[in-house]
UniProtKB/TrEMBL annotation:
Record keywords, A-Z: Antibiotic resistance, Lyase, Magnesium, Metal-binding
Reported function: Inactivates the type B streptogramin antibiotics by linearizing the lactone ring at the ester linkage, generating a free phenylglycine carboxylate and converting the threonyl moiety into 2-amino-butenoic acid.
Cofactor or coenzyme needed: Mg(2+)
Protein name (database record): Virginiamycin B lyase
GO cellular component annotations of the record: outer membrane-bounded periplasmic space
Length: 555
């Protein structure tokens, strides 16, 4: 699921972009801008840095106008901006400019700026250099920037993008001009190789990207194709297409919209990573014993693994793998709802499955117990199961209807939601069960997790509430601001709060142990967030439309 945003623009904005293409940079540098050589700092800019790489077809520079653009980037991002004065073609063809951008990157790091607080930003030729530099930084190892922005990049000097012909005559840039730029810059170097043509590189492991392009640009497909390739490689990519805009629109008055969106994108704690086709259905996820993030692909019949570099591995298993949990044996265990089995997958991808005694039981929730076994719910059979690491299965009658999610409690028992029994259940290691009715009728509890306060927390998908149950059975409920939010899964976060998905709103919610609730928007209201888990210091949730979302935890 490539995160593409169509940005509507008024007809007068399109006219302004064509009639006054330099409106933003033709104005004088504001008096309140602080310039240190080519460092430009807007008022209020503090830590971090923007490395700004200007456009100009690799052959031209306008230092004063570029400083104005650097100032505007500094103002939008709240960081000082460094304008890179790279060598120009034809006197200095490829790779001179790229070497200079990489030298600027190393120089900023040498000044003590943390890599994660550095943003690379470029326009046109500069955007190409930014993407080329990212590929080289990734290829050679070492730290990577926190994010990158590429406005109207050339990503394919072989000029194979369909929009080069389709938009020729609509754009201020032409196919003929691109041919001339390519010849001067490459000076005989191959046009279909990376890093000079970023489209031909390996984008795996790149930092979050914002790629912006005008919908009337000849380079529209250059931007689209690189964004698609990066998204397919597990990179968090936002592609913004500005309606009716030609090349260099960001330098005119409509560019204010882009600058504002850049600032808000950098400040957004949510990043989205494509992991499957939209119909594969990422559903639940968990931190793995190998440091990777593991997730179920409920409609694809597979288990996915995402490593620290964003590489995705997919393993076929039984039909409708649903919930997944880390087992006591260093493997991942999951429920196969469609085949009525319990599955196991080792970190090397080896799989096995086990059949509970009750046929067509509909296994759903799954959790490791304090007894070294895996416990699970059989939702369609109203039973609770226990499986040892040798595959021996025991079943117990549930104390209510449709047992769903399951979690180990702080009291040495397993707890579970009774979705159609409107209660929270508890089972001891010897099979004794208890049900605690909920105060709200039709609450339909689903998700369940142990909280940091010694209680169990759960979602009420039917009532639009978050619930808390103490081990003595005392229940407290907290209504959500939108009772139609349909909260689904819940987990304990690294910040001492509980985090949950709001399936009905396309949001992730957070509730403190004293009941204070906040929410974080996901990119689309219809992204169908389901499972949620803490991983690598952040919260991750599964979007059934084909992606995983990462939410930075406030510190």
């Amino acid at each position: 699921m490539l995160n593409v945003i169509a940005v509507p623009m008024a007809p007068e904005a399109a006219r302004a972009a064509r009639d006054r293409p330099d409106a933003l940079i033709a104005a004088p540098l504001p008096d309140d801008a602080e310039v240190r050589g080519d460092w430009v700092r807007a008022p209020g800019a503090r830590g971090g840095a923007v490395i700004y790489v200007h456009g100009g077809g690799f052959a031209h520079t306008m230092p004063e106008a570029e400083r104005v653009m650097a100032y505007r980037l500094s103002k939008a991002t709240g960081r000082p901006a460094l304008r890179v004065d790279y060598r120009l073609a034809p006197e200095h063809p490829y790779p001179a400019a790229l070497e200079d951008v990489l030298a600027a990157w190393r120089g900023v790091l040498n000044e003590g700026v943390p890599a994660a607080e550095v943003v690379l930003a470029g326009e046109s030729a500069g955007a190409t250099l930014v993407l080329s530099a990212l590929l080289e930084i990734q290829r050679t190892g070492g730290p990577r920037p926190g994010a990158a922005i590429a406005v109207s990049p050339i990503t394919d000097f072989a000029l194979t993008g369909a929009s080069i012909a389709a938009n020729d005559g609509k754009d201020v840039l032409s196919r003929a001009a691109l041919g001339s730029i390519s010849a001067q810059y490459l000076a005989g170097e191959p046009a279909d190789r990376a890093p000079q043509s970023p489209l031909y590189g390996d984008p795996r492991g790149l930092p979050p990207l914002l790629i912006a392009v005008g919908a009337d640009e000849v380079l529209l497909d250059d931007a689209r194709r690189f964004a698609e390739a990066a998204g397919a490689a597990g990179v968090s990519v936002r592609l913004e297409e500005y309606a009716g805009m030609p090349h260099a629109f960001h330098l005119s008055e409509p560019g204010e919209v882009l600058l504002d969106r850049i600032g808000r994108w950098l400040a957004d704690p949510v990043r989205v990573f494509t992991v499957s086709d939209p119909d594969a259905g990422p559903y639940a996820l968990t931190d793995g014993p190998d440091g990777a993030l593991w997730f179920t692909l409920v409609h694809q019949g597979a288990i996915g693994r995402r490593d620290a570099d964003g590489r995705i591995t997919v393993h076929s298993v039984g039909a409708k793998p649903t919930m997944i949990a880390q087992g006591p044996d260093g493997a991942l265990w999951f429920s196969e709802y469609g085949t009525h089995r319990i599955g196991r997958i080792a970190v090397d991808g080896t799989t096995s499955s086990f059949v509970p005694p009750t046929a067509d039981g509909g296994p759903y929730g799954i959790a490791a117990g304090p007894d070294g076994a895996i416990w699970f719910t059989l939702s369609a059979a109203d039973r609770i199961g226990r499986i040892t690491m040798d595959g021996d299965i025991t079943e117990y009658a549930a104390p209510g209807a449709f047992p769903s999610a399951m979690a180990a409690g702080p009291d040495g028992a397993l707890w579970f939601t009774l979705n159609q029994g409107n209660a929270i259940g508890r089972i001891t290691m010897d099979g004794r069960t208890t049900a605690h009715p909920l105060p709200t009728e039709g609450a339909a509890p689903v998700g369940l997790a142990q909280g940091p306060d010694g209680a169990l927390w759960f979602t009420e998908i039917g009532a639009g509430k978050i619930g808390r149950i103490a081990v003595d059975g005392t229940v407290t409920e907290y209504p959500l601001p939108d009772r139609q939010a349909r909260p689904h899964a819940i987990t304990s976060g690294p910040d001492g709060a509980l985090w949950f998905t709001e399936w009905g709103r396309g949001e992730v919610g957070r509730i403190t142990t004293d009941g204070r609730i906040t929410a974080y928007d996901l990119p689309r209201a219809d992204c169908e967030p389901h499972g949620i888990a803490a991983h690598d210091g952040a919260l991750w949730c599964a979007l059934e439309t084909g992606a995983l979302a990462r939410i930075d935890v406030p510190r």
